[in-house]
Amino acid sequence: MKKTLAIMLALVMVLGLAGCGSNETPKSDNGSTSENTTNQPASTQEEKDYSGYTIRIYSNSNSTERATWLVNEAKDAGFTVSIDDNSVISGDTAAIQAANENKDGDILFGLNETRWSQVVNGVYENLKLVEWTPSWADEVGEYAYPGAAYGLVIQNVLMLYRTDELGTNGEELHFKHWADIVDSGYKWYRQNKVGGTTNANINSALLYPFVDPASKAGGISVEGWKTLWKYCANGVYSSDDSYKYGFDPLNKGDVAISTFYSSSLYGKIDSAAESSENPLRGALEPENWALVDIEDGTYYIAEYIGILDKEGRTEEQTEAVKAFAEWFGSAEVQAVWGEEFDSYPCNVAAANILYPDGIPEIYTIKNFALSKVEGTDMTYAEYVAEHSSEWTNIMTNLGFFWADANGAVAEPDWDNLDWATLTQAKE
Question: I want to staple 369 with a disulfide (CB 3.0 to 4.6 A). Which of 26, 285, 381, 420 is the partner?
Fold first, then answer.
């Protein structure tokens, strides 16, 4: 799995960027401009130390390991950054609310299209973005809000199944929609709470075929909510933290089908035998598991980076923030970030450094998050952003995703529900 040689080359390039925050292109002795400065030693590039200003970062991509890595690597590159780990801020909602309330942020990164479309469109009163176009903007393709925010990491949700005797015993699974899992005839895992980024993305994938802009039930047909209820009622769940992301129940053989997120999948399979007597085997070349072939594709999210318009920040301090964002989003740094934390970069140049032999299958699946929703001018990711609070309210008000079988509520009387009330938060 490790791309050691490629990463060593990337590290060389990163070291070449250390202390270099300027976008100015150095000139040669004859006064001409060098065409390729990135691979030159740092001594040949104009160096500038931005460490005098502490760059305040808000992010949900903030495991203790990520936060520590970022602080240390940024310091080596000439920046001082401050970022809370997930013992302080946990999840995208907490990160964006803290940034909005504290009004002291310089950088916002992570989140997903749902949150970023809200930030870009001014939903959060105190979160305004600086107009900014990094040198690597063209390398992230469709993952960009031009002039505002640019993609860092691609993440998607996956539906996996066991192909051995603890699963389908060799039968290949082909679905048209994610929601077809409820009629698969196999035992499946389902998450045990409404909240959380991964849980929300799985729900978005399951609800995709039931989009109905005219529906008063949060823009989803009633049939969609019935199907999601069936997914909850007949799925296997546990309050055990190890179950919450779906890998462990599949790895132990407790279920035949499960959902999981793409980041860390291969690493989890590499170490699967440590937590199971019947582990999944084979990371890049699966031996006893496979991806469910789903015609719709899957729901991708991309984590982005944007520069916040912070009141009272000087031009020189803003220059430091821009230089940091330029550095962090570069192909070289994103390749190292991707290798370190098993993530897949939006930056195609970084992806080519990480995977010179070809892109892994889990990142070649069709992405329906950016498909246009018929009857609207929105992508599905934007549609999710438009209705996400209503969906949360519906699931909370009706009691979806109970964590304890003894706490399961009766199935709603679908024909006699007051959707105008259910789409609102409880008072």
Answer: 381
Helix (H, G, I), strand (E, B) or coil at 7: helix
Radius of gyration of the chain (CA): 23
Q: Output the pLDDT for position 319.
A: 97
The third-level CATH classification (topology) of the domain covering 4-25+38-154+303-362 is D-Maltodextrin-Binding Protein; domain 2 (3.40.190)
pLDDT, position 33 = 35
8-state DSSP, 45: S
pLDDT of amino acid 93: 85
Q: What mean pLDDT is predicted for residues 347-352? A: 96
What span, in angstroms and rounded, lies between the C-alpha atoms of 331 and 237?
A: 39
Cα–Cα distance list, 27 to 22, 37, 40 (Å): 13, 10, 12
308 in Cβ contact with 130 (< 8 Å): yes
Contacts of 97 (CB under 8 A, 6+ apart): none
Output the average pLDDT for the chain.
88
As a whole number of angstroms, the distance between CA 326 and CA 294 comes to: 37
Encode 12-27: b = buried (16+ Cβ within 10 Å), e = exposed.
ebbebbebbbeeeeee
Q: Which residue reads 């309330």 in tokens?
A: 101
